[in-house]
Amino acid sequence: MLTTNIENNSFLSVFLPMAMHDSALLNALIAWSSSHLSLRDPAFQQVAMQNRLTALQDLRLSLESSPENVESNLAITLVLCSMESIMADNEKAWYLHLMGAAGIISSRTCIESEFNETNSAKLLQSFDDAHTGRWLLRNFAYHDILMAVALDREPLLPSHHFVQLDEGPVADSYFGLASEILNILYRITSLNQQVKSLQKSHSGTAGCDLLGLDTGDYAYSQRSISSILSEVASTFESLELQLQQWKCPPSNDESLILLAESYRSSALLYLYRVVRRGLPDLEESLSIKIANEVAAVVFNIGKMPTRSLPECTLLFPLFLAGGEASKEIHIKIIRHKMLDMIDSRGFRNVEVALSVLEKLWRLNLERKALPATKGTVDWLDIVVQDGVLLSLS
Fold first, then answer.
1. Residue 214 bridge partners (DSSP)
2. With CB atoms counted within 10 Å of each terminal CB, which end of the chain scores lower, N or C?
3. Quick one: the chain helix, strand, coil %, rounded to 5?
4. How many angstroms separate the Cα of 260 from the Cα of each of 182, 246, 340, 375?
5. Structurally, how many domains does the chain consist of?
6. Could you report the per-residue pLDDT of 213-242, keeping only the tens digit for each?
7. Rounded CA gap, 146 and 85, in Å?
8. Farthest CA pair distance, the chain
9. 209: pLDDT strictly greater than 60
10. CA 352, CA 347: separation in Å to the nearest integer?
């Protein structure tokens, strides 16, 4: 399974030891492995499907017979979420498992509004082993926060609390050295919801998100539009400064540093996208900043050794940069890197993400050829129109 580094491969240090005493988790890991093999060799497709069915049956039985076993149920659900993400043959399956994981966490753990050492201990009370609990919650947070960006909605849980459960300077299996970046990304998703609410209030409409969920009536009765815009601008400046001043934790692995820097740039890209939506008057100045961060992502991935371990979680920064890339050289580099990831790992969610970008690049190129056409197509327009539930984890 995926890991950004050998030293802290939690799949080996957490999942496999658990699976030695948990047949349901073992079957989930077998399902994940055989499913991945089936992407490389069609001869494994039938056995992979059988293993997936067994894993689902085991999960149902575990949830019904041992709902209090948070550690096992959460581990199984996260493995299946990851498996369905890379298979991408049932686009909603990975999200349904993520929702299931959120339900397991919220029903059995104490999540406070503020995070501190005391609340951290409360979060881990439902887990037999604190180290295992920390990693499972961070694992969920990674998927939850990236889901919120990809689906243009709020996270399922206050996952920024879980990101802060890291254990010192050791790189995480998923997000490496970028734990603080994930924390800031969560806060940008909150800003995004505020901007979306403001837009709907201003237009006097409600509507649905990418999942078809009612976004509700966002009428502001007490606060003026101008004061909310001022708040958005202030939050933007604060988050931008934090990202710009962030220092990557030291590491002897340059690839981990490059991965973290790529996540910093993708967080800035997401922030600029959100603010461009809420403060269109800033579009001209934001376009310059966006171009700089696209170039930064391209530069950093260009320095990363091909098929190094940290490359396994590059999809998120690659997609965010690709969604804003306008220079042909940047598009070519991003396309080449994603094609190489598809060739080396076979993950279908990378194929889906690249197909969205290819359509985006084609449509915007066509629009450039029409002098009377203003504006550009956004990747969100495409995923909404095509009903794609992007998994960027």
1. 208
2. N
3. 70, 0, 30
4. 10, 10, 20, 32
5. 1
6. 444 444 454 456 778 888 999 999 999 999
7. 12
8. 66
9. no
10. 9
Query: If 0-12 CB within 10 Å is exposed, 13-18 middle and 19+ buried, where does residue 372 land?
Result: exposed
The verdict on residue 364 lying in a domain is no
- Could you tell me where the DSSP H helices lie in 157-253? 160-163, 179-203, 225-245
**pLDDT attached to residue 204:** 55
- Token pair 């910093």 in the structure block, residue: 264
Residues 6+ apart with CB under 8 A from 214: 206, 207, 208
**How far apart, in whole angstroms, are the C-alpha atoms of residue 331 and residue 357?**
9
* DSSP string over 257-324: HHHHHHHHHHHHHHHHHHHHHH-GGGHHHHHHHHHHHHHHHHHHHHHSPTT-GGGGG-HHHHHHHHTT
* Residue 212 counted as domain residue: no
Look up residue 12 and give its two tokens: 């080996």
What length does the chain have? Answer: 393
Q: What global pTM score does this model have?
A: 0.91
The residue segments making up the domain with residue 7 are 1-174
pLDDT at residue 360, rounded to an integer: 98
What are the C-alpha distances in Å from 34 to residues 59, 114, 225, 241, 372?
17, 41, 53, 45, 52
H helical segments located in 109-206: 117-123, 130-150, 160-163, 179-203
Distance (Å, rounded) from C-alpha 218 to C-alpha 141? 27
Question: Under a CB-based contact definition with an 8 Å cutoff, are residues 157 and 113 in contact?
Answer: no
Is there a domain that residue 130 lies in?
Answer: yes
The β-bridge partners of 208 are: 214
